[in-house]
Design the sequence.
């Protein structure tokens, strides 16, 4: 019979940063080899005397980093995030030894434009894409032949988590464009950037960037309502299922599911 240690690492939390009262990130040292591709997810768990709770979470770090990073949203009535929310630096979290997921950067279709659309924690796999390509760019193994265009939506600017890092990348490299958009600007009076729900500004930026169903692959990650709306918008500009990828973060269970 398998023991817990056969399937799980007891990953140690090495860093935690809180972006808002219900949004935070952690970095963990898995404590053993953990391989993944940018865009894949890891399964985290917490064992209590009653039961083990597990959920899949997209990985924000690059496979080229020594630690693994996650971006969480607290679901107050959820089974797992309230338990994860209690964990601090030095604590352990269960982490399955194998990564999973098909939400990886499509480099086989021949299309070199990638239209990335996310809500809040749905930006995590895209952060992994960008960090990985940026490392390749600095080392000379990536020449900029793949171009990434990221629309990142949140209600208020402090919910982005990674916007400073992503803005810095966008300023530095020619192959990455980044636009964060806030849907509740009246609650965020200092915000001077794009405004509106991310699905409301998708058509504006697909036109601005020259992205359509003939020349790009689209990726939708985050809230299921955004994904359904986004798919309809993309289909109207010619995106077919073949060139449209999605990763749904179910509310409230937060189970990541790839279709």
Sequence:
């Amino acid at each position: 019979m398998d023991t817990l240690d056969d399937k799980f690492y007891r990953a140690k939390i090495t860093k935690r940063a809180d972006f808002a009262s219900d949004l935070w990130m952690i970095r963990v040292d898995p404590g053993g080899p953990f391989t993944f591709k940018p865009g894949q997810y890891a399964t985290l768990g917490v064992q209590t005397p009653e039961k083990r709770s597990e959920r899949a979470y997209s990985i924000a770090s690059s496979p080229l980093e020594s630690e693994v990073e996650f971006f969480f949203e607290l679901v107050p009535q959820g089974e797992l995030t309230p338990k994860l929310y209690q964990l601090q630096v030095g604590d352990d979290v269960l982490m399955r030894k194998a990564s999973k997921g098909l939400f990886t950067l499509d480099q086989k279709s021949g299309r070199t434009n990638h239209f990335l659309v996310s809500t809040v924690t749905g930006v995590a796999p895209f952060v992994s894409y960008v960090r990985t390509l940026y490392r390749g760019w600095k080392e000379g193994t990536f020449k900029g032949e793949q171009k990434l265009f990221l629309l990142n939506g949140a209600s208020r600017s402090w919910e982005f988590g990674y916007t400073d890092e992503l803005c810095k990348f966008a300023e530095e490299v020619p192959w990455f464009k980044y636009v964060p958009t806030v849907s509740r600007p009246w609650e965020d009076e200092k915000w001077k950037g794009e405004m509106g729900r991310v699905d409301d500004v998708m058509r504006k930026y697909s036109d601005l960037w020259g992205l359509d169903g003939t020349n790009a692959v689209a990726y939708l990650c985050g809230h299921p309502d955004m994904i359904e709306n986004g798919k309809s918008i993309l289909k109207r500009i010619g995106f077919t299922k073949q060139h449209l990828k999605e990763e749904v973060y179910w509310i409230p269970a937060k189970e990541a599911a790839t279709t």
